[in-house]
């Protein structure tokens, strides 16, 4: 048996208001007059405030030639978008001291990928896969403003490329620093907060019910699940404690899948996202709604949370698709071999046939 030896985030700061320490955190990583680039979710462009009431953009510790770039996350990150951003920075500055991503999972992934592409030749599409990145990127820090994806701790950055939706999975991908300040997630819209929070819940169910499970994954997965339950099942209203707990759930859920894998909901939702552009959080929810045969208890609890939190989960999104379109989704989904193996075991190909998967897509 060969065990994975995985690289983790180097520095973590957690706490309400910890964002205020960003200037001192970044200071040792400034290289001469090369700027720090703050890649900020476009939600904050018009002065949206964080939990302390001040606009986030006024709190960014800009020095010298530092630059704020607003990340357009209308669509999930694409390799073309990453390449364009990296080129823009190389053309303007030659090199930069670091890339600081502030936003949801999409912005965090963009920041990781742009950092890597500052020091690796070619296109980010060349590095979609496992361990293809050869050089460390520039210094990178991640500051989540939505909780659930685990992108703050993972060794991947999920990108849609010309031929596939796949991450740049590598030991160079994890952040050098993350700043977990639950205040920053205070104003997230109720539906979005739920969809992204459910990404974490689903990571836990898929990890804990998976065949790859070990005590490391289980320890983190159980804690994350407990926190999700406190937030979405036990509590009767959203408060600051909910943000505190969900941010730690996201971290622990990410740690859980780092040593195991996700499962059926993710494998199926990747197909939706590739063909229809369905976003990760909501896509997972749309699929989870129909996964009783695979995760009976998890799905029952998921439905309870949907009802309690008064959330709409779309249905009928695959109505009217052609055979060719179903085939595209099936191909993308069945291509996620480790996910299926984790979910259904080594003989997964005998269990999840194309016909069975087609029937599942038709229900969504
Ligand atoms: P997101 O980053 O796509 O953002 C969703 C929406 O919320 C956007 O409109 C954004 O502007 C807005 N938003 C962000 N923060 C906000 C705030 N504080 N208040 C109000 N609005 C806010 O959503 P997400 O669910 O966090 O991330 C999904 C992305 O994460 C996908 O691209 C997915 O592929 C990726 N992902 C990556 C990993 C990984 O390990 N790298 C894991 C899971 C998902
Ligand atoms: Zn996910």
TrEMBL record:
<dbReference type="Pfam" id="PF25137">
    <property type="entry name" value="ADH_Fe_C"/>
</dbReference>
<feature type="domain" description="Alcohol dehydrogenase iron-type/glycerol dehydrogenase GldA">
    <location>
        <begin position="12"/>
        <end position="182"/>
    </location>
</feature>
<dbReference type="Pfam" id="PF00465">
    <property type="entry name" value="Fe-ADH"/>
</dbReference>
<dbReference type="InterPro" id="IPR001670">
    <property type="entry name" value="ADH_Fe/GldA"/>
</dbReference>
<protein>
    <submittedName>
        <fullName>Alcohol dehydrogenase</fullName>
    </submittedName>
</protein>
<feature type="domain" description="Fe-containing alcohol dehydrogenase-like C-terminal">
    <location>
        <begin position="195"/>
        <end position="297"/>
    </location>
</feature>
<keyword id="KW-0560">Oxidoreductase</keyword>
<dbReference type="InterPro" id="IPR056798">
    <property type="entry name" value="ADH_Fe_C"/>
</dbReference>
<dbReference type="InterPro" id="IPR039697">
    <property type="entry name" value="Alcohol_dehydrogenase_Fe"/>
</dbReference>
